Structure formats: structure tokens, C-alpha cells
């Protein structure tokens, strides 16, 4: 298989590998790239954030910083706080992205993350309320892609979950005499994470063949993609399929089964890293 054929006829080049049930990077069709996570105030994370994490999925690198601020609850949601996710794809992460306002892919990713937070109930907004109708927490979750090589959604959900598990919020009370909020930085409690959603993405080749954790090149050549989000109970939180090849019920079920297995691997990795950084 010559390098020339990969440049001139990339799809045919891939098909030759796929017929042998492998990929040009040496992976099997159902094999994920090496996954690593770095949590907390370390050299690779955002030291000014209230929680941070860096996730590498092969060559795709995503960092998430969570900043907590105080605000008044919305009038129609007096007992709820806010979660504001934002995904950034700066021009430095890949040639395909341009400087300026968020592009379509970044906006779609931000909406996907917002849907995952809502559908999975990973954080219940009532838990962010400090005083009904008076004060609540706002969690700004900034997810920035540092290096893009496909499968942004899996890496983003993983980084978000890891960063949120790193957040500790100070005790806040409202002084009844003055009506002002008082923040006790010496008494901090971990953020309550109700569910642990994990995303698993697949690329569809020639309408029938499924491969997991696609690279940017594989996404470009695929006839469709699908992302399955599950929680630790094996519950389906979200199915994200932006057009492309249709999936049969059997293929979709296969994706869900694989996603449940992947969830266990990711959860195990997060727990291991958190255990290593927790003071004994």
C-alpha cells in the first residue's frame, strides 16, 4: 500500500485495510486509541480554575477548566443554578479551523455538551442553589481543543466529567442582618456529581461498517458518525447522529453495547487518577 494511493485515493486506501479488519494506524476496528487523563492543578491544567482536566485520545488533546461564580437565580427557576458549557476549536489545534467567532462545529459541540449535561442529570441544577430566589452557583465549563485529530465529542465529555469531579466549592451563607453573601474559603465541599456520562463515537464506512474512536481522516472519509452516551448504570443518556448513513436497529444496539463496555474503562481510569491525587 503506497503513500501515493493514500493521497490520491484515500477512501480506496482505507478500504483495503478495512477488508482485513484493521486500520492504517494498526488498530482493529473496535479498538480505541491510547487514552490518558490529567486532573487538577498540575503543569498541564488550568491553575486558575476551580476544577480542571486534560484528556488525550490518541493525538486529540482537550483541556477543560471549570470556573464557579455566584449569581442570582433566574426568576422562573428560583431554586436552580446554572451550567454554561462552551467548546472552543482555535486555529492552533488544526488547519481546518479559523480564528474568529465560533464555527459551526464548535457550536454543535457546545450544544451536544449542554444536552449531555441535561439528559444525563450528571449535575442537578437544584444542587447549585444556595438560597432560593437569592443566590446560586454558575459553573462556566470551558472546553478547549489543543490538538485536533478526530473524535472531539468523546474527549470533551471525558474532560468535562474529570474537571467537574475536581471541583470543590466553598461554603456560602447569606447574612440575615446585611443580606450579603459570606464565602468561607476554608470550608470547601466537592461538587455533587449524580451521574457519570461517557461518550463513545463511531464512524460508519460504506453505510455498513462501524469503527470506534475515528481519527480526523476517518471522520472525513466516513459516510456518517454516531455518538452514544451512557451512564454507570448502562442507561442510554443520548444518541447524537448528525445525518449521514442510517443505522439499523441491530447496528445501533451493537453501538450501545460497546459504549457500555467503554464506559467501564473510562470510569476506571478517572477513579484511578482521582485516587492518586487525593491526599491520604
TrEMBL record:
Q: Which domain of life is it from?
A: Eukaryota
Which family is this sequence assigned to? Belongs to the RNase PH family.
Q: What GO CC terms are in its UniProt record?
A: cytoplasmic exosome (RNase complex); nuclear exosome (RNase complex); nucleolus
The record's annotation in SUPFAM superfamilies points to: Ribonuclease PH domain 2-like (SSF55666), Ribosomal protein S5 domain 2-like (SSF54211)
The organism is: Tychaedon coryphoeus (Karoo scrub-robin)
Q: Which gene encodes it?
A: Exosc8
Provide the taxonomic classification: Eukaryota, Metazoa, Chordata, Craniata, Vertebrata
Where does it localize?
Answer: Cytoplasm; Nucleus, Nucleolus
Question: Which PANTHER family does the annotation name?
Answer: EXOSOME COMPLEX COMPONENT RRP43, EXOSOME COMPLEX EXONUCLEASE RIBOSOMAL RNA PROCESSING PROTEIN
Q: In this protein, which residues make up the domain named Exoribonuclease phosphorolytic?
A: 31-170, 197-260
Query: From the Swiss-Prot or TrEMBL record, what is one GO molecular function term?
Result: mRNA 3'-UTR AU-rich region binding
Q: What is this protein called?
A: Exosome complex component RRP43
Mention any Pfam family matching this sequence: RNase_PH_C
Q: Quick one: a GO biological-process term for this protein? A: U1 snRNA 3'-end processing
Annotated keywords: Acetylation, Cytoplasm, Exosome, Nucleus, RNA-binding, rRNA processing
